[in-house]
Protein 1
Amino acid sequence: MPQFGGFMNDPTAQMGLQMGQSAMKVGQEYVEQNFNRYINVSTLKHYFNVSNRYVLSKTVLVLFPWRHRPWSRSQTNTASPSHNGSTTTQFLPPREDVNSPDMYIPLMAFITYVLLTTLIAGLNGKFEPQLLGMTFSNASVVIILELLVLWLGRYFLNISSESQIYDLVAYSGYKFVGVIVTIAVAAIVNRGKGTGGWVGWTVFAYTFMANAFFLLRSLKYVLLPPDNSPSNPSMQTIARGQRSRRTQFLFVYSYVVQFAFMWWLTALNFTSGVPVVAGGKGIKGRWGR
Amino acid sequence: MASYGYQPNPAPQPQSSYSAQNNLNFYQSSYPQQPVSGHSTPFQAAYGAGTQSNAYGASGTANYGFGAFPAQAGASGQMGTGQSGLRTGWLAAFGTEGYEGEPPLLEELGVNFGHIQMKTLTVLNPVARIDQNIMDDADLAGPFLFCALFGTFLLLSGKLWFGYVCGLAALGAFSLNFIFSMMSPPLSQDEMNAAQSQHYGGSSHLSSTLTLGRSSSVLGYCLLPLVFASLLGVLLPLDSLIGYIVVSLAIAWCTYSSSAMFCVVGRMTNMRGLVAYPLALFYVGFGIMAIFSSRGTGRIDAMKAVT
């Protein structure tokens, strides 16, 4: 007579269970290894090692970079892990060095941008929860495009060090601070009717110039490092042709690219329920009415 | 005869399959040991240390429990009990007894009302001191309940936004767990070994004392003030000045208690303001939903009509 619930008594079923468990374990290990390959956790932790004082002074620095000096990152000499008596120099974490890039401010600024836009839309009476998703996707597109620019730049400029890429990604997020300021000021002055008008354009121009100056000064040390800095691990002097190419990239990146992205981010307004770029072009699509 | 349910064997079975069944455990017991000390239930505390090693329940007497419980006193064939240790008789059928040595149902499910109450009171009391081990049993029963209540109160004020609540909660839990894992100090080597030997089942261990379960648990429990605010929103429209004030107070309260908990559980000292800001943003998202879900004072519809 068959036994109900007796299938687990079968040794074959037991073996199947064991195989399933070990398969799952192998799968988990595989995912863990590959996850660590794509996102280097310890390197990322360096970018989040921030303090209150750092966040405040860095935010002020992004908005008022004019009189700050020096712009170079501080280094420290630590004993080399291979114990051969030499010292390796490393950059100080953001907690101790205001010139060090971090990822806390860009990430927070991005999320604040999404929420602020939705809030202003809501105060205009145009709230719907889809707005959160729409703004988020829009800003994500900007970020992805910027990452694309940086990735292409990496090939053209032959940037090999991994920390340099993370630095560039971090620096690309600082423009959200300026964008937030622009939107907030314009919303207060224009009573939420978008970022057009004298005040909006003035604040936008100011934050754009501040951001460009900040990037120029900071990225100079990332893209054109002096020879013995930690960001130049192979100690290769960069050839003259490459130096000029990198300088050109720096200028184009700081001015043209940032202008385009900042304009895109600030020019959306939701006064009519459809995201409309200032100038009248509506973004049609699923949400077009 | 067929045996119903999960009883391993009636008596007429041949001897070979009887002994094979002795060595099987229907449920592999998997009560994890937490790196920061704490056993969540008294039953686990008493038997948790022993379960792993008693995986193949040793005794010659039949081991009829649902799991490897050591010192199984209930042998078969005792007087007054049936073949498998259960009492027979129609009176016992309507009773709630089970096998010997079986844990109570709520403990087995991991629902510990005492802990839930303690955590809820910690959230509601702004001046409470938070124990470091409070989040060792990171249960999600309370958070699910609070999210469901929030959605229900939004429903009662006119909008069917359960999906958005769920989506925001999930997205926020993942991203906040990531951010706070990055911000917390890395684990020392022996803590890493302790965590990995329990194979948490999480696929990416971000070198922190925070896991996704704990983060979600903290976030869910600290949602309680916003649940009260949305309850208020059923009665009076939150789109007025007093509504803004109430929701802002609720957001501040949520942020205050959750930043305290995260700083303690994640061992992030001196960073409370930095921890509080992303939490404030997260709860502002919920607050926006609470405010703009109300039917309003008519201002929203008036604005829509104008533009």
Note: Chain B has 13 helices and no strands.
Protein 2
Amino acid sequence: LLGPTYGTGSILENTTLEVLDFNLLPSSLNLEDKYGIYSNLLFKYFLAEGIVCGHNLFVASAKEDPADILKELPAPLSDDALKNQVDEKETAIKSKQESQESMKIAWRYQNLPRIEVSPAASARFGHYYDVSKVVSPELLQSTKWHRFFLPEEMSLHPEIKTCNMTCGYTRLLQSIQRIIYQEGFDGSYPQKKQKNILRIGIQSLGSVLWGDDICCAHNPEDIYSLTKFLYVLRGLLRMSLSACIITMPAHLIQNKAIMERVTNLSDTVVGLESFIGSERETNPLYKDYQGLIHVHKIPQLNSLICDVSGTKDLAFRLKRKLFTIEVRETVFFHYLEPESVLFFCILIC
Amino acid sequence: MRLYQNSLTAAKERGQLVFLEGLKSCFDVLFGEEQHVGQTNPLQFVSENGSNLKTMYEFVRTSLIASGSDSWKCPVLLVDDLSILLSLGVRPVDVLDFIHYCRVAVCSQLKGNIVVLVHSSDDSEDEENELVVNSLCHQSNLILWAEGLATGFCKDVHGQLKIIQKGSSELKAERNLLQIYQYKIQDKNVTFFARGMSAAVL
């Protein structure tokens, strides 16, 4: 399923903006929308998908108790509800795929995914979630997960050896490394019966709560902390069966050089621009959407330069149960029905 | 890449390839056991919060010397990727010093070549990185510049490669030679073609 490096070969044919297969993309960065609402949603989608697939989770936050984050994960959609939602779009999607349209989402409708609750689940690609419901406690209980809550860590282990990084980052790295080693995600225990994947979710990295000042100063005291952290994390991910999603309040980081370096260190970078509080909220051109998605970087195998999505105009909407991402038609053609697709999550890390 | 993977492994075993895996070395520095005296990790500077690439240079030099006794001709030093060093807290001047020392060792003394990868973009605001890139471009004999197409994404043409060859003599003021190719990346191969001559178009 997942190797420590690329080249596991599960490339989706004929796609550009693919449903970003986490198998290919160990590190992904989600640039938060201004109030962190939608980035949190996608963060939760990533974790929820881990639960449904039976993966192990590692949830890290400096502001919210990971247990609370998990309790609010969206519930997988039941089959009937799923069928109703998807039916009307199915024929349109199928015909589009056949005509090799510019719609590049690799969402296969031939076999409607069935939501499997048991851990021995699907090798299938993605599931649907009901945003209006939270995941059941039973499903949560069957998941093996690990927590990192910075305030808790600081009080439990006051003294640690730093590696010249912000203290919070050092602790987080040590914690991740410890779990990877102890649970054998790095192949330490070859006799372990079944290999599993560790899904790591890190919330609001770079914010002041992590002890970093890059969000509140143009010339921060230590501009290398964050990039060092990402580099070391990248090494950890490369050497283990894991994937990571990070949300980051990029709009608060004034030093653009840092953001460029952060982008270079990530496999995938996606930015969310919410319309809340902006003039677009009331602009009729955007009336169907809550925000835009900017794909800054997706990796391309066998290439030294990154790939950039062929579709530049992606918007998202949150309607009742579903969060969808759509290709937004330009003004010129706005009377046409936008093609909509369902995404379960891209922000792989 | 897969095509070359096996040959690289074989080369490594033959002693023809010395591979320093930065991610792994960095991991060893931070999480590994204490280093023995005399054994310094090339990425030691990460834990020391320093900007000193001396140990990395020593690694390069000793690797080349070790194999120098055999009939190694024209060694090549490949650095992927230099921009990362800036992210790890190394100052631009130290990065350039490192390259300078390597040039002396690899190019002048051993008559070899150095190939360095850096990231850059036209609208970059990373001044330190641009400084390094400009300086390297100035020193280089050959620049290969890979970038996406200016017109945006294309399924059949993944990007464009500019090859700039510096004139051999500055005294004669020979002009730089510029060639531009486009390319498409396939599973085991890359095809290059002149602009506008992609197979899809012809």
Note: Residues 116 and 169 of chain B are 22 Å apart (CA to CA).
